[in-house]
Amino acid sequence: MALAARRLDRLEALASEIGRAGRRAVVIPCDVTRDGDLERAADKARGALGKLDVVVANAGFGVTGKLETLTLDDYRRQLETNVFGVLRTVYATLEDLKKTRGRLVLIGSVSGHVAVPGSSAYSMSKFAVHALAASLGHELAPYGVAVTLISPGFVESEIGQVDNRGVWRAQAPRRPIPAAFVMATPTAARKIVRAVARRRREVVITGFGKAAVVLHRHAPWLLAAIIRRFGIKGRREPR
Question: How far, in Å, CA of 32 to CA of 216, rounded?
Fold first, then answer.
């Protein structure tokens, strides 16, 4: 297994945990916003593992705020990581997946189906990932490559601790989400692994997320009324 991300300390800690479980993990520092980084990471992964048969494009963060509080640079920064970072990952590994008839996993979001006030930048990026997965699913089927879109709802993570510039903050702003709506990370991980193993086209993680997607598809007027009636909006930026 190859682990590629910016924060080397996090990668090494995870690699140690995987090693204690009897598996091997290769640590590769990488920034998905830099041209060339993904190609170098893929080369190192091939050298260490021999082949690539599952690729997960997971890097992402969330720019939050109303339109008038954001700038074009905020939107560019959001798309650079969440969209072009995914594309860089795909381009760097596509030929490997064709050779192995492997699996390409794109991490989207329920926000790629349902947009709420204050989340236009993030939702734009995840709607784009949703469209990319749908298109690539058709394009890569003749090569035997399965494309799986993962659309999480509320899952335990640190995304709420990352500000609009992509900087991690020690404390996230409080958000009034009932605990019953938030899925534990290990539970979500198991669901993702199962979906990838079964070569599913898409899986929506969390019951609340599934309900929102169903409403969006079959009763968008009702979902819009709920969002406006209860003042549902995107999270606040951490400071």
Answer: 31
